[in-house]
């Protein structure tokens, strides 16, 4: 068990995941990073992206909507605004929100540009991830 | 003396009122369960966030420089009053408003300028009726709070704090203690004093963390989150309190209806009996008259 990491993903809407895993990789705002047991403790911000973890031979993908990661030698805590496992993604909803975001960006009048791009990014990554499984 | 028909009508009216109140009670119970679930789901996030923040703060001496942590002499204090949008929940709203008014008065006595923001229609109406100016009002949240609501409120609060419009933020809301106890509470939102309690600090707090990006940037992003969490928690707590208060109020109302029904039924029976007696007397009187 010493080579295992405890991965916890929590959002305001509940705990998404709490599992013993072998390896975690995620995309931080400063670049992607991978974590193995015994990693130097660090704290970083996460961007909208995909987190993956390995457990034995199995790799699982999780969608993470920006947040923070706290890494210690034996634990990885992800604090995300929202997060879903790949199999839980509602692809219809993601597609709908992709369409909405695209339309809003096209009109490009008096919109919150940052918000629209963020929502576009979220939807795109969700769809990519859902289709990859 | 009312006629039997009038009394029966009244009986029916009371019975249908009872149906409504007991239905409302059931709805409130269901809603309360939902909010409680959300509170439980939210707790790990809040706890983890506090531990990350205290890890971040530990070992840093210069962290006190962040604007959200700085204490300014309080010249202008804002009181945020959190009530429900709808009534029929017993003394829930008036308890909060009473505490809020006391708070405002005592602040004014200290010679501090007070501004007021409200969440919930009841608080807005209360201050409007007294023609007290409200800086900002969020209406229509109760029943469907999301984390995004808390973010929106936090953004406004932080903005006003950072550009030094307001030197201190206090929120008045109802804390959910149990099904029967909801306590109006005042809590300071800004400036942030101590983060979390000592035991929330994870065991590795002494370890030196690496920060990416720098500690200052992280702090800058995490502190507003902390405010959001406080607000979200207050929203959830008050929602749970509201539903619990409504449940108790509706249960009492249903019980009162039952009492009323018993009382009115008694009157109805008396009137009916009186009617029968009168008719009997008439008949007996008629027979006697015929015999003569």
User: What is the CATH topology descriptor of chain B?
Assistant: Pyruvate Kinase, Chain: A, domain 1
CATH topology of the largest domain in chain A: ATP Synthase, domain 1
What Rg of chain A, in angstroms, do the CA atoms define?
16 Å
Q: If you compute it from the alpha carbons, what radius of gyration of chain B comes out, rounded to the nearest whole angstrom?
A: 29 Å
Which key terms come to mind for this protein?
heterodimer; A: 133 residues; alpha+beta; ATP Synthase, domain 1; Single alpha-helices involved in coiled-coils or other helix-helix interfaces; 2 domains; 28% helix; B: 292 residues; alpha/beta; Pyruvate Kinase, Chain: A, domain 1; 5-stranded mixed β-sheet; 5 helices; elongated
Provide the fold topology.
The complex is a heterodimer of chains A (133) and B (292).
Chain A: E1 5-11, E2 14-21, E3 23-28, E4 31-36, E5 42-46, E6 49-55, E7 58-71, E8 75-85, H1 91-107, H2 113-132
Parallel strand pairs in A: 1-8
Antiparallel strand pairs in A: 1-2, 3-4, 3-6, 5-7, 6-7, 7-8
Chain B: H1 4-57, E1 76-82, H2 92-109, E2 113-119, H3 121-129, E3 136-138, H4 147-162, E4 168-176, E5 182-190, E6 210-212, H5 215-291
Parallel strand pairs in B: 1-2, 1-4, 2-3
Antiparallel strand pairs in B: 4-5
Helix pairs in contact in B: 1-5, 4-5
């Amino acid at each position: 068990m010493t080579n295992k990491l405890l991965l916890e993903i929590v959002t305001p809407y509940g705990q998404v995941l709490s599992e013993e895993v072998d390896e975690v990789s995620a995309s931080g705002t400063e670049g992607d990073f991978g974590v193995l047991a015994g990693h130097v403790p660090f704290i970083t911000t996460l961007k909208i992206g995909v987190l993956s973890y390995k457990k034995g031979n199995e790799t699982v993908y999780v969608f993470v909507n920006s947040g923070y990661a706290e890494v210690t030698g034996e634990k990885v805590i992800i604090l995300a605004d929202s997060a879903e496992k790949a199999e839980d993604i509602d692809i219809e909803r993601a597609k709908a929100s992709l369409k909405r975001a695209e339309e809003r960006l096209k009109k490009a009048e008096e919109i919150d540009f940052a918000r629209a791009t963020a929502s576009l990014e979220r939807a795109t990554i969700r769809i990519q991830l859902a289709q990859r499984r | 003396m009312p006629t039997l028909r009038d009394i029966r009508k009244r009986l029916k009216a009371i019975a249908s009122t009872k149906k409504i109140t007991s239905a409302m009670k059931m709805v409130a119970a269901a809603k309360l369960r939902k909010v409680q679930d959300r509170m439980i789901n939210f707790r790990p996030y809040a706890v983890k966030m506090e531990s990350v923040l205290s890890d971040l703060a530990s070992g840093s001496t210069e962290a006190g420089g962040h604007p959200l942590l700085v204490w300014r002499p309080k010249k202008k204090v804002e009181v945020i009053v959190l009530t429900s949008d709808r009534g029929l929940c017993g003394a829930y709203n008036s308890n909060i408003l009473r505490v809020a008014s006391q708070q405002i008065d005592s602040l004014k006595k200290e010679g501090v300028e007070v501004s007021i923001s409200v969440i919930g229609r009841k608080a807005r109406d209360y201050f409007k009726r007294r023609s007290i100016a409200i800086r900002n009002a969020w209406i229509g949240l109760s029943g469907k709070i999301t984390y995004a609501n808390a973010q929106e409120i936090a953004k406004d609060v932080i903005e006003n704090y950072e550009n030094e419009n307001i030197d201190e933020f206090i929120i008045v809301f109802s804390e959910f203690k149990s099904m029967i106890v909801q306590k109006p509470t005042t809590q300071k939102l800004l400036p942030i004093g101590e983060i979390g309690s000592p035991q929330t600090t994870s065991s590795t707090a002494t370890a030196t963390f690496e920060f990416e990006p720098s500690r200052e940037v992280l702090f800058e992003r995490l502190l507003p989150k902390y405010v959001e969490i406080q607000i979200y928690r207050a929203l959830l707590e008050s929602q749970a309190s509201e539903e619990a208060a409504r449940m108790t109020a509706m249960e009492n109302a249903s019980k009162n209806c039952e009492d009323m029904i018993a009382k009115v039924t008694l009157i109805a029976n008396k009137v009916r009996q009186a009617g029968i007696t009168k008719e009997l007397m008439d008949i007996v009187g008629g027979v006697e008259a015929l015999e003569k």
